[in-house]
Amino acid sequence: MAKTLFDKVWDQHVVKNIAGDRQVLYIDQHFIHEVTSPQAFNGLRDRDLPIFRIDQILATADHNVPTKDQHLPISEPLSKMQVETLMKNCDEFGVTCYGLGDKNQGIVHVIGPELGITKPGMTIVCGDSHTSTHGAFGNIAFGIGTTQVEQVMASQCLIIEKPKKMRINVNGKLQNGVTAKDIILYIIAQLTAGGGTGHFIEFAGDTIQSLSMEGRMTICNMSIEMGARGGMIAPDETTFDYIKDRPLSPKGEKWNEAVSYWKTLYSEEDAVFDKEYTFKAEDIAPMLTYGTNPGMGIGVQDAVPSTDNTKALTYMDFKPGESLLGKEIQHVFIGSCTNSRIEDLRMVAEFVKGKQKAQNTSVMIVPGSKKVELQAKEEGLDKIFEAAGFELREPGCSACLGMNEDKIPAGEYCVSTSNRNFEGRQGPGARTILASPLMAAVTAVEGKIVDIREYLN
Amino acid sequence: MEKLIKLTSSAVPLPIEDVDTDQIIPARFLKAITKDGFGENLFRDWRYMKDGQPDPNFVLNNDTYTGSILVAGKNFGCGSSREHAAWAITDYGFRVVISSFFADIFKANALNNGLLPIVVSDETLDVIFQKIEENPDHQLTIDVEKQQLSIDEEMHVNFEIDEYKKECLLKGYDDIDYLLSLKGEIESFEKEHLMF
After folding, report:
1. Quick check: B194 and A121 CB within 8 A?
2. Closest partner residue to A227 among B32, B103, B167, by Cβ?
3. What is the mean pLDDT of chain A?
4. pTM
C-alpha cells in the first residue's frame, strides 16, 4: 500500500505491536523543561532507575524563567525552586541542561532546530504540546504528559495508538502582509479547535513549500490548537539548507547518507489520508482571534460572528457583528515558540524602523533563545526596537502562558504572536487576540487594530 | 496506579464546551515539583472570584452537586499537555470524566492516572445533563469490565476503552512496568534502527 510521509516515519519506529491498537514506539529525541519533568525524575528515583539513553535527552529552562535580569537569582521563590530542581535533577542523572545564562538556553522548540538536533525522519517528544513545532522538518513530534516523560526517560519508548492521517493542502500566492501565522490561524478557524483531534496532519501544497523553515515551524507549532497530535511537512532543499552546518547536524559522509535517506520521506502519490482539505492562499487575510480558543479567528476586515459561545464574547467584551478595526490595544507581545525566531524579529524590525510605538500601548519582544537574542543584537535590531519604544527582553516562554511575572492585567487587551487565547492564559482576566508578528507590529505603532495590508499598499 | 473496576456515584455537571487545561489548572499553579495538592486549584479562575471568595455560581461551590464523576461539554481537556490537569481532577476526588469528545493528550494523561475518560454521543451527553438537572441525586454506575455506564439502573450505555488500557485500569498497572520488561527487545530494535 502506498505510504504517507507519516506512515514511513512511524513504521520505522515501531518496536512491537501489543494488545488492542497499541504499539510500542521508539523515541529518537526527548526534550525536557522545568515544569513537566520534576515528577518524572521523582518517579525514576522511586524505582531506582537511570535514564535509559542519556545521549537522546536534552533539558532547558524556559517556561518559568524571568525575562529580565537573568544573571541575577530568580526572585520568585517557587519559580526559583523549580528551575533549581531541574538543574539538580539533570546533574544527578547526567542530563545535558542548558540552564539560565547558558549560550544555548531558550524555548525548547526554538533551540532543538537551532542546534541541529531536530532533523527529518525522527520521533521527538517533550512534555509540552507545542512539540509539534519540530514536525516542520518532516519528523513525528508531539507533546506528552509527565507520566510519559518518565516512560521515555526509563525506556526511550511509549505505548501509543497510531493516530489517523489528515492532509491539509494550501496552494497559491499569499497576499502582501499575510504570513505563515495567518495561514495556520485561518486553517484552525476553518476546521475548529477540535477539528484535528485524533489525527496527525501533513501540511502540503505549493504555498507551504514556499515557506522558510521558520514559517513552517509556525504552522506545525499550532497543529495542536486544532486538537491534532502533531503536524509535519515533507523535507526538501529548504529543510536541508537549514540543517546543514548546525552544531549537531550530521557532517561529512554522514551528511550525504542522511540527505539521501531524508529524500525518501514524502507521501507517495496514491497514499490515502483519512481526511483531506485544500485551501487557497489568496483567500487568507491577516487573521485575528476574537474569542477564547484559537479556532475563534476571523480576517481583520470581518465582523465578529454570532456564536453560541456567549461566555467567550462576554470575556472578551466583544459583540456579534462588531468590527475589531480601530479597537484600542493596551499591550503587544511578540514572542513564544510560535513566533520568536530571528525572521519574526526581522519582520517586526523592518516594519517599525523609523516608527514609534503608540503612547497607549506597551510592547514587549521576547526572543526565543539566547542565540536569537544575540543575532538580533548583531544585526542591530535591538537599536531599532529601542528607538521605537519596544522593550527587548531575554529568552523564555514569558507572557505566552503567564507563568512568570510577564502577565497582562485583567480586562486589558493584548495582541499577541503566541498560540493560545484561552481565558486567563496571559494572566487572570487578560484578553488575548492572537495575530502574526506583522499585525502585532502595526498594532504597536497604531495603538489600535488596523489592517496591515492598507499600511503596506 | 489506583485500580478502577466499578463505581457508583452522583455526578457534577459542567456543561461547557472546549474546556482547556489552562481552565482546569492555570499555569501559575504549575510551579510545584510533586503531584500533590493540585485539587485545591482545580478550575481556579472559575471557582473563585477576584477577591478569593468561592463563586457561588460555579458548580463545584454548589452543594447540590457532589460525587466522583464529572460530566463536561465536548472537547474537554484541549490545549496544553500539562498532566497537572489530570492530577488536579483526581486530587479533587473525581475518578471518571464523561464527555462527548476529549482532547488526545488529556485522554492519555487521564488514563495514566487512573482517571477514566468516557466518551458518549452528543445526544447521550445531553440526556445525562438533563437527568442531573432534574435530579442531582441520580446515581451513575460505571462498570469498567462490562464497559457500561448506567443511570439509576434504567438507562445503559456502552462505552469504548482500549483493550490494553482496560487491563491497566482493572489491575492498576502502569505502562512503565510493561516497558521495563521490554528492555531486551528495545535494545535489539536499536541495533537495526536508523538514526542521524
Report:
1. yes
2. B103
3. 97
4. 0.97
Q: How far is A67 from chain B (nearest CA, A)?
A: 16
Residues of A in contact with B103 (CB under 8 A): 194, 197, 227
Q: Are A243 and A137 a contacting pair, CB within 8 Å?
A: yes
SS (H, E, C) chain A: CCCCHHHHHHHCCEEEECCCCEEEEECCEEEECCCCCHHHHHHHHHHCCCCCCHHHEEEECCCCCCCCCCCCCCCCHHHHHHHHHHHHHHHHHCCEEECCCCCCCECHHHHHHHCCCCCCCCEEEECCHHHHHHHHHCCEEEECCHHHHHHHHHHCEEEEECCEEEEEEEECCCCCCCCHHHHHHHHHHHHCCCCCCCEEEEEECHHHHCCCHHHHHHHHHHHHHHCCCEEECCCCHHHHHHHCCCCCCCCCHHHHHHHHHHCCCCCCCCCCCCEEEEEEHHHCCCEEECCCCCCCEEECCCECCCCCCHHHHHHHCCCCCCECCCCECCEEEECCCCCCCHHHHHHHHHHHCCCCCCCCCEEEECCCEHHHHHHHHHCCHHHHHHHHCCEECCCCCHHHCCCCCCCCCCCCEEEECCCCCCCCCCCCCCEEEECCHHHHHHHHHHCECCCHHHHHC
CA distance B9 to A105: 49
- Residue A47, pLDDT above cutoff 90: yes
The H or E element spanning position B41 is none
> How far is the C-alpha of A298 from the C-alpha of B68, rounded, in Å?
39
> Is A36–B83 a contact, with Cβ atoms under 8 angstroms apart?
yes
Rg for chain B, CA atoms, rounded: 18
pLDDT in tens, A75-120: 999 999 999 999 999 999 999 999 999 999 999 999 999 999 999 9
Taking residues A267-277, what's their average pLDDT?
Answer: 97
For residue A155, is pLDDT > 90? Answer: yes
Q: Kindly list the residues from chain A whose CB atom is less than 8 angstroms away from the CB atom of residue B47.
A: none
Q: B135 pLDDT band (50/70/90 cuts)?
A: very high
Question: Which chain A residue's Cα is nearest to B191?
Answer: A15
Which tens digit of pLDDT belongs to each residue from A308-337?
899 999 999 999 999 999 999 999 999 999
CB contacts, 8 Å: B109 with chain A = 145-147
Amino acid found at A60:
T
- Chain B residues close to A193, C-beta within 8 Å: 18, 75, 78
* Average pLDDT of the segment spanning B95-123: 97
**CB atoms B113 and A64 under 8 Å:** no
What pLDDT, on the 0 to 100 scale, is given for residue B171? 94
Of A13, A159, A424, the CB nearest to B26: A424
What integer pLDDT is reported at residue B154 of this predicted model? 85
What's the CA gap between A202 and A221, in Å, rounded? 12
Which ipTM did the prediction report?
0.94
pLDDT digits (tens, 9 = 90+) for A178-219: 999 999 999 999 999 999 999 999 999 999 999 999 999 999
Is residue B152 scored above 90 in pLDDT?
A: no
Mutation test of the interface with chain A: which of B105, B126, B192, choosing the one with the most A Cβ atoms within 10 A? B105
Yes or no: say if B196 and A121 are a contact pair by the CB < 8 Å rule.
yes
